[in-house]
Description:
The chain has 88 residues and is α+β, with helices and mostly antiparallel strands. It has one domain. The chain contains one helix and seven strands; from the N terminus they run ββββββαβ. The strands form three sheets. A three-stranded antiparallel β-sheet has the order 6-5-7, with helices on one face. It is elongated, with a radius of gyration of 14 Å. The two termini are 18 Å apart. 25% of the residues are buried.
Amino acid sequence: MVVLFSAGCGLKVVNPEDEKNKGALAVDYSGGGVKLVATYTCKLDSMGNHFSALGKSEDEASKEVLARCKDRTAISFCQPEKIKCFKN
Length: 88
């Protein structure tokens, strides 16, 4: 999955599977204004499958990577304690 995030004055294509997300920013429209916010990447390995997700918060990215895992594997194999997150 490829997600577009605003970076500087242009758009940057961000691939959640790529380690090159360092410094990636997201556009936040909440609060009635537009601002750039830091992003988080979370990764999870389950039954030989690799999942990752980007989010504007660690909680958002963690929930998304867990949802992706549950969509593709048996729910019992997606263990939240195995999620690894880091700030980009």
